Amino acid sequence: MTASVTTVASADLADAALIDVVVEKAVAATRLLRHAARDFAPAVFSTSLGAEDMVVTDLIVRGDIDIGIFTLDTGRLPAETYELLAETEKHYGRKFQVIYPRHELVEDYVRQYGINGFYDSVEARKACCNVRKVELLGRALSGNKSWVTGLRAEQAVSRSGLKPLVHDETYDLVKVNPLADWTERDIWAYIRANGLPYNKLHDRHYPSIGCAPCTRAVAAGEDVRAGRWWWESPATKECGLHAKPAFGGTSSQANLGRAEVKAPEGAGRRQLEESKECGLHVVDSRLERKGQP
Ligand code: SF4
Questions:
Q1: Summary mean pLDDT of the chain
Q2: Residue 229 alpha carbon to ligand 1 centre in Å
Q3: Residue 293, domain member (yes or no)
Q4: Which CATH number covers residue 161?
Q5: What is the pLDDT of residues 57-85, one digit of tens each?
Q6: Mapping DSSP to helix (H, G, I), strand (E, B) and coil, where does residue 115 land?
Q7: Which of 146, 148, 144, 117 has its CA nearest to residue 130?
Q8: Strand 165-168 vs strand 173-176: parallel, antiparallel, or unpaired?
Q9: Which residue has a Cα nearest atom 4 of ligand 1?
Q10: What is the pLDDT of residues 216-246, one digit of tens each?
Q11: Does the active-site annotation cover 278?
Q12: For residue 243, is it within any domain?
């Protein structure tokens, strides 16, 4: 799957059709998040502070939706990501939960594979992701009934066909993907229209940002995930957060996106009223940014 990199500068806020689409998608995403908070509580959102996750964070925080927010600090993140975390906390006037790896597991990994052993094989790379991401994700998700993500279907071949709601057998909870059908252009239009903070690496051609040693810039026309674990084939490019874990669990990645749970409820008047409320919220912000009354 090839997708061009949409930079901040190229998202055109004068494109009324684009903005209409984004407002409509934001309304639907907000409705889905409210559904998760109401019917699949407790719900949590795992943010990696990527562009998509900044949108989901904004929908949750400004919508005052009862969904906890946490991030995983692998210990190998770029300086720009830490700066963004601080900026985001300041932007919303609240602190976000930060989860860390177990130091004894990191020490074991380094002893076995070396400090940068993830370059040597897919197995070594996945072992590192398990220690620095997957194990802590399991701890963070424990006790929750739903897990909100910023995944989009067009991000990678391994995510095509992604549904808004799926049953995640690995963690036995409902996985909520409110941006499943958003395009990269939608994401940046929302970020620009609402003046959201974002990772400055995006301005330097990093459409997808993970750990510093495993992320590079991409060239125009390259897949948006081409800069992640660029030495591997596209089919292996998942860190395990959205696939089979090494720490417990019995399901396979093949189940992801296929076992659907019930669709969001509330068709009819009540939903329409919710939609109007959420839509105005987004539209107001857009107009403020454009200096209109
Ligand atoms: S992305 Fe790289 S450094 Fe980060 S956990 Fe995975 S292998 Fe380790």
A1: 80
A2: 9
A3: no
A4: 3.40.50.620
A5: 999 999 999 999 999 999 999 999 999 99
A6: coil
A7: 117
A8: antiparallel
A9: 211
A10: 999 888 877 788 888 887 766 666 666 533 3
A11: no
A12: yes
Beta strands (DSSP E) in the chain are 43-46, 68-72, 97-99, 146-148, 165-168, 173-176
Q: Which two tokens stand for residue 161?
A: 């066909």
Q: Rounded to 10 degrees, what is the CA torsion of 232, 235, 236, 240?
A: 140
Dist. CA 136 → ligand 1 center (Å): 13
Q: Mean pLDDT over residues 1-28, rounded?
A: 71
pLDDT: which is higher, 208 or 272: 208
In a domain, residue 124? The reply is yes
- Domain residue limits at 79: 8-287
5 pLDDT exceeds 70? no
Number of domains in the chain: 1
Rounded to the nearest whole angstrom, what is the distance from the C-alpha of residue 128 to the centroid of ligand 1? Answer: 6
- Of 74, 109, 123, 231, the one to substitute when testing ligand 1's pocket (max ligand atoms within 8 A of C-beta) is 74
pTM for this predicted structure = 0.77
* 86 within a domain of the structure (yes/no): yes
